[in-house]
Amino acid sequence: MADQLARNRISRALPKGMEISHFSVLNHLAHVNGERSPAQLAEAFHVTRGAMTNTLAKLEWAGHIHIRPDWDDARRKFVSISPAGRAARDAAVAAIAPILNEVVAAVGAARVRAALPVLREVRRRLEEG
Length: 129
Known about the structure:
The protein has helices at residues 2-13, 20-32, 38-45, 49-61, 83-107, 109-128, and strands at 65-69, 77-81. A two-stranded antiparallel ribbon has the order 1-2. The mean pLDDT is 94. The longest helix has 25 residues, at 83-107. It is mainly α. The radius of gyration is 16 Å and the shape is globular. The relative contact order is 0.13. It has a single domain, classed as Winged helix-like DNA-binding domain superfamily/Winged helix DNA-binding domain (Arc Repressor Mutant, subunit A), CATH 1.10.10.
């Protein structure tokens, strides 16, 4: 339930036309600061390749990513964030930061820091099985 509430609140704060899935991919690409294949992105987000292809098509249409063929294997593609995508990601971070800051202030920074290792462990164990 907490996940649903957070997603709803963040979705409303994101810039017009941006979905959480779009922000997540842009944020991931901004952090890795390099190219990833659609299959690697699908695996990272635990979604089907079809779902990732759909998200990537929307991001490419918006000019937020570049998709290029693999020069060694024409069946593969590589995805990178564009300057417009980096700007859109930065605008999204600025839009959701107040929400996150508000929650951290209400719960307490020390309690949030203490919870993070537990949440990471839960995620790791869920990914295993």
